[in-house]
Design goal:
Two copies of one chain form a homodimer. With 259 residues, the first copy, chain A, is α+β, with helices and mostly antiparallel strands. Helices cover 19% and strands 33% of the residues of chain A. The first copy, chain A, has a single domain, classed as Glutamine Phosphoribosylpyrophosphate, subunit 1, domain 1 (4-Layer Sandwich), CATH 3.60.20.10. In chain A, strand 5 and strand 6 form a beta hairpin.
């Protein structure tokens, strides 16, 4: 299995603190050491740092921990290989273009015997169940909305349908974003926290490190952090319910907006 | 305009030496300081480092200069913006998936008033002429070969045809690769050098730095380096002829193979 980390904010924010704790799980405080990756959206642009080395020793991860990249939509992943060998082409997050936007996807779980016969748009480059599932999701969205990105509610309902179908095959926790919306699906385990004024200090579980967000934020900032398991031990994280597809926008979960 | 740097080898090789000189042109020895990027293929996998900061001050470029990534197909670009604002979504190289492989593209030149109306597969995310041209090229290949990647000669002939059409619009020097083949097109300015045994020392033009390749190579290594203008001052670089689409494989130009 693997672990997921996501961030969605109303103003570009760096993820150095959360990534510090998260990346320790890639070989130090946990065993997810078969590669890692992180995607940052900067407006419509997107850059992804990947490495098949464990995140605790990767020089690229060292850069990401120390170089503050400000982004509103971040998706990170540390890998414990289940399907597909340890190689760059199997590192998450994966990225494709749809409707003139980049879409980025990372998966925690396992989809045994998952097969995706491409309908002509997207093909997996690597050999993970995860990338195949991502291709199927985008292909489904593309077929349903050939003219371009639909209003969020329409998009959500189709995405939920295909997600539910895939989730019947196996464990399918995921993060998905196009830099505008941020989708999170919980199959078994995924939690989030929203940080906003009044800010406080937070202490990592995986490293003895504390950050006082009062010193780093303004009154109107709002940041949602989503992770497989909580990253801090002095804050209350909210579990996403199994079977729930939750959308974040501007650092806030849009709960019950589409029922 | 911009500058291009490419590398194609028969064994995975790092590009630290060439990138040291090349990246100096992004704000120090030349004025291509509107962002940069570099793509490394590692088998079918591909990772791209991008930054909209000048390459001489970018912490990500610093990582690329110092962290040896071994790759057989590398495409790098430093940008002097002509079309499209300075932003991450306009930084080259661009990447899309076709036939279950990643394709990477970087362009030097300018295509005034270039328009590409997507035929349904690929859309530009940013607003450069370069990304639109890339989308058109991939879309053309996809339409011509819907079943998958054809033999190299068939691919070459179609690629040359669409390249010639686009090159009528403006300056269209480019590097294109899928991690298997490495295509270079010269519209006005592009040179290459093939380094192989007996190896010698090379001295950069843009930095006072020398590397003795005898100490770093084995007898059977072969490395082609392609650049807008030569990177070294003690080696003989071969200009690619204007109008020529040259394919490299295993560090060697396949000249006249497709006529």
């Amino acid at each position: 299995m693997c672990q997921l980390l996501g961030m969605n904010c109303n103003v570009p924010t760096d993820i150095c603190f959360s990534f510090e704790g998260f990346s320790a799980r890639g070989g130090k405080t946990d065993h997810h050491s078969d590669g890692w990756g992180i995607a940052f959206f900067e407006e419509k642009g997107c850059r992804i740092f990947l490495d098949s080395q464990p995140s605790v020793i990767s020089p690229v991860a060292e850069l990401v921990r120390n170089f503050p990249i400000h982004s509103t939509h971040v998706i990170a992943h540390i890998r414990k290989a289940t399907q597909g060998e340890i190689a760059l082409h199997n590192c998450h997050p994966f990225r494709r273009e749809l409707w003139g936007r980049y879409w980025v996807f990372a998966h925690n779980g396992n989809l045994p015997d998952f097969r995706h016969h491409s309908m002509g748009f997207y093909q997996a480059v690597g050999n993970t169940d995860s990338e195949k599932a991502f291709c199927l999701m985008l292909e489904t969205l593309r077929k349903c909305f050939p003219q371009g990105k639909p209003p969020l509610k329409e998009l959500y309902l189709i995405l939920r349908k295909i997600t539910q179908e895939i989730a019947q095959i196996g464990v399918f926790n995921y993060l998905l974003s196009d830099g505008e919306h941020f989708f999170t699906h919980c199959s078994t385990k995924l939690s989030y926290i929203v940080r906003q004024a009044p800010f406080a200090a937070a202490h990592l579980i995986d490293q003895d490190m504390t950050v006082d967000f009062r010193e780093l934020t303004t009154e109107s900032d709002r940041v949602a952090v989503i992770a497989t398991t909580p990253l801090t031990d002095n804050e209350v994280w909210t579990p996403i319910q199994p079977g729930e597809l939750l959308v974040f926008q501007d650092g806030w979960p849009l709960k019950h907006a589409f029922d």
